[in-house]
TrEMBL record:
A GO term from the CC aspect: plasma membrane
Record-annotated membrane-spanning stretches: 89-111
Keywords: Membrane, Transmembrane, Transmembrane helix
The protein's name: Anti-sigma K factor RskA C-terminal domain-containing protein
Keyword Transmembrane helix attached: yes
Naturally occurring in which organism (per UniProt): Tabrizicola piscis
PANTHER family, A to Z: ANTI-SIGMA-K FACTOR RSKA (PTHR37461)
Domain (Anti-sigma K factor RskA C-terminal): residue spans on this chain: 95-209
GO terms for biological process, alphabetical: regulation of translation
One Gene Ontology term of the molecular function aspect: sigma factor antagonist activity
Source species taxonomy: Bacteria, Pseudomonadati, Pseudomonadota, Alphaproteobacteria, Rhodobacterales
């Protein structure tokens, strides 16, 4: 079975439908567009098909065509990179200097300060010596030379204000003694005596004073 050939009117009607649907080749569409202008009967067929297909678009909103011109111009004519202004460069330099200062300050706070030397109590031959340092409301007394007292005896540290009785700061039976006490003023005296084990029984030196130094005096 073969299809019956289209009549000239059927062929024109099919061409009008293809033109409205936009399925023709460029050459065919150009020829149909020219025919619409010169052939009123063909133009009427095109209008009829446009009316038929018009309802197919009722369920769709019109979508605006994308504006591609800015993107095309940006690719064809890229803007040169802006050189940093003086103000921007100055802000960058200032920020870098500030960041460096913060880092240095942080490093400085990580390094613990060294306790301040208050006095050194030492014999003339330096065979026995104690360093007294102050740090954070404490006195740190460290034996830097010599040995502790013999068995049954102990070195005891005294603080003597001008015109006042001695005050015991503790026993030096170990290499280091830490006492909660403020920094002694200049002119006060630090002294070490030899006492019985457990310290002086009367609250003042009972044995020989073997070391003494005035705070603030050269050692």
């Amino acid at each position: 079975m073969t299809d019956a050939p289209l009549t000239p009117r059927d062929a024109d009607d099919a061409e009008a439908a293809e033109y409205v649907l936009g399925v023709q080749s460029l050459a065919e569409r150009t020829a149909s567009a020219a025919r619409v202008k010169r052939d009123p009967e063909f133009a009427a067929m095109v209008a009829d098909w446009e009316n038929r297909f018009e309802g197919l678009n009722d369920g769709f909103d019109e979508a605006p065509a994308p504006n591609l011109l800015p993107a095309i111009e940006a690719r064809l004519f890229p803007k040169p990179a802006k050189s940093p202004s003086r103000s921007g460069l100055w802000r960058w330099v200032s920020g870098a200097v500030f960041a460096t200062a913060v880092v240095l300050l942080g490093l400085a706070t990580l390094v613990p300060p060294k306790p301040a030397l208050v006095a050194v109590l030492a014999t003339a031959d330096a065979r026995l010596a104690y360093e007294v340092r102050h740090f954070g409301g404490e006195l740190q007394i460290t034996r830097v030379a010599g040995v502790p007292a013999v068995a049954g005896r102990v070195h005891e540290l005294w603080l003597i204000a001008p015109g006042a009785a001695p005050i015991s700061l503790g026993l030096l039976d170990r290499a280091e003694l830490v006492v909660d006490y403020p920094r002694p003023p200049e002119g006060w005296t630090l002294a070490v005596s030899i006492e019985p084990a457990g310290g002086s029984p009367i609250g003042s030196p009972t044995g020989p004073v073997i070391l003494a130094v005035e705070v603030g005096a050269e050692t």
